[in-house]
Amino acid sequence: MSGALVRWALSLVAGGGDPKSGPPRLTIVRHHRVYADGERALYHLGVSESMLTGQLAACARAGLTPVSVAEALARLDKGTPGHVVAFSFDDGYADNITRALPILERAGARATFYLTAGLMEERRAPWWDELAHALERATKPQATLAFGGAGVTVDCSGDAGRAAALRSLLPLLRVLPAEQSARLAQLREALGVEGRAPCELADWTLARKLVISGMEVGAHTLTHPFLTLLSPDSQRREMADSGALIREKLGAGTPGVAYPNGDHDAHTVAAARSAGFAYAVITRSGDVNAGSARWELARRPLTEGACTGPFGFSARMTMAEVHGAFDHLRKGRVEVAS
To answer: Is the C or the N end of the chain the one with fewer CB within 10 Å?
Structure first.
């Protein structure tokens, strides 16, 4: 039986219960991009507008209209009984404001947006967008590269080849920023790609709408590195300087930080605390309660696959995911995405 059918079967018996009873419990939902319906990016890192609309409607029917992470944590601190859901969006893409924000406002929901402040300021595309851009704009159908002693053949002659190349290259770019830039430049040269990927992150004028709308804005580092590859001091600067830049540009506080790719260790946690953040979120699934470590707060993905049953969008599967019915299938796996 496929994983999708297993989740569908589990959703049939998953229960939610009364959201206002029981011990205090928080579910943080993890999102990234919001695409126009029918839009399919090579590196599809998000959900469609209609999918997000359906998710919010399902939460509202269950009495779990989302709030921001900071609001939910304040509720936990007060010991308010019951279940609360918070939505979060990583990276700071423009579509978070142009597409997600109106949908959230119509649903009466709030959310937290973690911004990659340095890339926004420089108008520079994240590394995974650079990778996808190179594969999509290749003028040479094939190339063989050697990254750190690992050889990989890239076939860009069709959609299937580009998708396979993406999967092969993603783990080979989990390196220090300078080496990552060098490997991307090598890839562009090998594939005959001129120019860099356009930056699809929000600019500061657009991001200011989040503050005006009453959303929480948090930090997602300056340049989105794999933090555990950096020195403790560099980790702290990536997080602290991101928060400072957001406050300078938006005039809003940044109580929380999201570790890029969920990548963190004890040094990262110490750096986040010393940088003045009140909490930090990761990419491992689970619930948050009053005793959870505040600088390693779990988040659940709410992908299109997680919310789609045999007949399309499924509110039941969505809420089963929100309630953690599928956590054991992931077995503590950390998402390597964004």
So the answer is: N
Structure tokens at 313: 């969008």
In whole angstroms, what is the distance from residue 161 CA to residue 141 CA?
10
Q: Which residues pair with residue 142 across a beta bridge?
A: 155
Q: In 251-312, which residue ranges form alpha helices assigned H by DSSP?
A: 266-274
Pull the structure tokens for residue 62.
């269950």
Please tell me the distance from the alpha carbon of residue 98 to that of residue 39, in angstroms, as a whole number. 15
Alpha carbon distance 218, 247 (integer Å): 10
Q: What is the DSSP string of 55-93?
A: HHHHHHHTT---B-HHHHHHHHHHT--SEEEEEEEEE-B
- Sorted by where each begins, the domain ranges of the chain are 3-123+201-330, 127-191
The pTM of the full predicted model, rounded to 2 decimals, is 0.93
Q: What is the mean pLDDT of the chain?
A: 91
pLDDT single digits (tens) 128-187: 999 999 999 999 999 999 988 878 999 999 999 999 999 999 999 999 999 999 999 999
Residue-level pLDDT at 149: 82
> What's residue 79's pLDDT?
94
Query: What helix, strand, coil percent values describe the chain, rounded to 5?
Result: 45, 20, 40
The CATH T-level fold of domain 3-123+201-330 is: TIM Barrel (3.20.20)
* Backbone φ and ψ of 295, nearest 5°: -105, 20
Of the candidates 117, 127, 100, the one whose C-alpha atom is nearest the C-alpha of residue 261 is 127
Q: Which tokens is 27 given?
A: 């579910």
User: Residue 86 contacts by C-beta under 8 Å, 6 or more apart in sequence?
Assistant: 26, 27, 28, 29, 66, 67, 68, 69, 71, 72, 111, 112
The per-residue pLDDT for 20 is 76
Separation CA 70–CA 57 (nearest Å): 22
